[in-house]
Structure formats: structure tokens, C-alpha cells
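Session log. Operator J.P. requested a structure for one protein chain; no other inputs attached. Running the standard single-chain path with C-alpha cell output.
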Amino acid sequence: MAHVLAIANQKGGVAKTTSVSSLGAALSELGRRVLLVDLDPQACLTFSLGLDPDTLELSVHDVLLGRLSAGIVITKTSDGMDLLPATIELAGCEAVLLSRTGREHALRLALAEVIDTYDFVLIDCPPSLGVLTINGLTAADEVIVPLQCETLSHRGVGQLLDTVHDVQRLTNPRLGVRGVLPTLFDGRMAHCRAVLSDVSARYDIAVLAPPIARSVRFAEAPGTGRSILSTARRSKGAEAYRAHARVIAEVRGEAAAHAGSAGVGVEPTRIGSATTTGRSVVTGPLGAGPLGEAAIEEAGREAATLEAVAREPARGEPVPVGADGARV
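Structure written below.
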């Protein structure tokens, strides 16, 4: 049975869609069978993966309302993942579901027939705490919270966690919080590091490492209908998402088991003062738990160069230029 991950934050513009497409592509690179579910009426994930939402006749809207089975609507993408696409019709789906009994379980029940076909299902939740997001959380095993390292995005984490607790109590007791994924990170800014530190201390929530640095390469990828793992394969952003995918897929754990069976010692991953063997996460309040100030400062120093490096074209790729011939 697939492991289902919901990517959720009611704040828009925090790289939810980018995280879903990038993690999905990275897991697909690892040979995992991946299904992406676009639950956002804006259909940004659908567009980002090369489909035109305005011309689609079938979408997740029909699946949630029970008109069609998920297997009929699922389509292949160029990056190797399958996609349950969205259209603007999904905006009206929420109103219809409100009048139905068991509305929170519509997605979970719809995915039941295909869940065994995949290793991972990633759900792109809309930037709200409405019925569609509740459906995503109810269907999920874990939730990842993309966090743009700024005050307004920080404020939404507490509201989302309140919703997660309600879902755990009422509709999905197995739901876990995998952690906060720092996105659009600029280690040169003290504000970014301060927000990240405060989130860990305030909410006692895991902070997933490495942070995803701000890069123009993420903005360029949707225009090609591919993820950054295809358009800028060797960029720091692509490598960061690959690192997260390896942890999600437990590649490290498999490697450790293999090395152990061969009699080879495996050195655990050390992040600051924390020691982990299977997850690249850091937890606890700064200075008081496994995540210390030194770890944040080290991540900040490394991330300070990520944007510049990510802008460097991979060997053989064209250098983007503006209308005046200057490098973008």
C-alpha cells in the first residue's frame, strides 16, 4: 500500500506545488511508483507538469463527486509520475461536498481502488483550510508543511497544526506531522534564520533539512511542463529535493541494512548536536534540544551561496539572457 503525504499550508506562495512536483520527480528517479494529486482549483500542479487545465475534460473534481473512478482520470507525466489533475471546476466541488455525509473521506475512498498500484501518493492541498484540504489530510499518513521563512508564513503554521489536531481527533487518527520544510530560504537574511528558529521553538515541530534555497530555476521550470529535476538537474534546489526524497523513501535505511548485513559499519548522520540514522530532521527548541544555534548558523552559511550556484547552468545548458543580452 502506498504511503500518502499531504503537502499543506493555508498560506499561498510557499512552494507547495513546487515541493510536490519536485519530490514526486525525485522519488520517481529512485524507481518508486508515484501518484500526484492536484487538490487546488488553481490547478498549478497540473499546469506545471505539462497539462492545460482549460482543455481537460476529466479531473479530480469528477472523482471526488463519484462520477468517475480515479483510474480513468489518472494521466502520465513527462517526469515519470502519474497525476490526478485538477481544473477550475474543483472550486465548485467544495460547495457540493458540504452537503454530503462523510464529505471529509471523499478523496480517501476515491484513492482506495488505486492505492496499491503506487509506492507514494503526494497530495497538493489548496491554500485554505476548507473541505478540500481536510480531504487531503484525512487521506494522508503524514503531512509536510512548506514554510517560506517569513513572518506571515510562520503565522499560518499554528493554524494549520490546529486543523491537523482536529483531523487526528475526528477523521484520521493515524495522521502524523513529518515536519516543516523550509522553502525560499535565503541564509544571508537574519530574518529567515530567526523565523526558522522560532517555528522550531514555538511549535515543537521537526524542521526538515536541508532547506530549499530561493532560486530562479524554480520559476523557470513550470513553463516547460517539467520539474526542476529535469530542467536544472544539477542545481542545488534539485539536489535538495533529492536529499529529502531519499529520506522519505528510506534509501538511507536500506543502505544501512545492506551495509550491516555485509559487516560494514554505518556512521549515523549528525546534524548539530542531534544524531539520526534514518531521517534528516532536526527537532526541538533552539539551544535546548537537538537543534542548536550552531546547526542553524551552519545551514545559513551554506544556503547563502545556493541561489548564486543554482543560477549557474549545468554543462551543455543554454545561459538564460534578457532582451538586452544581459545574463538573467
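Operator note: DSSP finds 15 helices and eleven strands in the chain.
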